[in-house]
Specification:
Layout (H helix, E strand, L loop, with lengths): L2 H5 L5 E7 L7 H16 L5 E6 L4 E4 L17 E3 L6 E4 L3 E7 L8 H18 L5 E3 L2 E6 L5 E11 L2 E9 L19 E2 L2 H5 L5 H16 L5 E3 L12
Parallel strand pairs: 1-2, 1-12, 3-4, 9-11
Antiparallel strand pairs: 2-6, 3-5, 6-10, 7-8, 8-9, 9-10
Helix pairs in contact: 3-5
């Protein structure tokens, strides 16, 4: 399936800011919001919808996570096993997490969809003046060098033709959280952020509208709107 066929499914696009900063979303609450939103999209009650947020610190372990990838001892944040593909990673403050709940064209081509998300993140980084690349045999987005440094990750699940989970992009993240795991199961590489690479603070608030613009572009949505979590029928946080 071509990129055009993937994009053709996104005639309408909604962005929801589910919680940032002091309103960062506990992972379990965000996951519940994803599931509710996914169910409504499957039933065509809502258009394609992207949840954007920061999480409270959490490690999430995808279905391919190996025991040695996990943190030893107390990592300082919960470890949650999730139903997406991929291995273990970290979510938390300073990292923009996006969950596009979008219907994919039939027959579903997950690889083509992942390539769109990679292209979106590359375009975002390029707008800040940071060249990035994909690396053969490794998932996500990279700043290449010695060593290669991972700046963005993607983990997807597709159920009943609708994608969930999504991408994360490190903006001004405390990178020490990644030292406690083998991020995405890839050894002998580093992790990084926009701020670390560019030598100035790049905040989630600064990155969010740029992600929206580039994501809408790769999904083929000429216009998009914003709604609240209440308009989706539920709250993202326990507050």
């Amino acid at each position: 399936m071509s990129d055009v066929e993937v994009r053709a499914q996104a005639r309408e696009l909604v962005f929801v800011h589910a919680g940032f900063g002091t309103a960062a979303v506990p992972y379990e609450d965000g996951w519940a919001l994803q599931r509710r939103t996914h169910e409504r999209r499957v039933n065509d009650e809502i258009p394609d919808t992207v949840l954007l947020l920061e999480h409270e610190p959490v490690y999430t372990a995808g279905k391919r996570t190996e025991p040695l990838d996990r943190p030893f001892g107390d990592p300082g944040a919960p470890v949650v096993d999730v139903d997406r593909g991929g291995k273990i990673t970290w979510h938390g403050p300073g990292q923009l997490t996006g969950y596009p709940i979008v219907r994919l064209a039939d027959p579903v081509d997950v690889v083509a969809y992942v390539r769109l998300l990679e292209r979106m993140m590359m375009d975002v980084c390029a707008e800040f003046g940071l060249p990035t690349a994909t690396v053969e045999g490794r998932s996500g987005l990279w700043v290449t060098g010695t060593p290669d440094r991972k700046i963005g990750s993607i983990g997807i699940r597709v159920s009943r033709g609708v994608a969930m989970h999504g991408f994360m992009l490190n903006c001004d993240t405390d990178m020490s959280w990644f030292d406690r795991i083998v991020p995405c199961g890839i050894r002998d590489v580093g992790t990084t952020s926009l701020s670390a690479e560019l030598g100035r603070r790049i905040t989630v608030a600064e990155v969010t509208p740029i992600v929206e613009r580039h994501l809408a572009k790769v999904l083929g949505a000429p216009e998009y709107v914003h709604r609240t979590t209440a308009q989706l029928g539920g709250r993202a946080t326990g507050a």
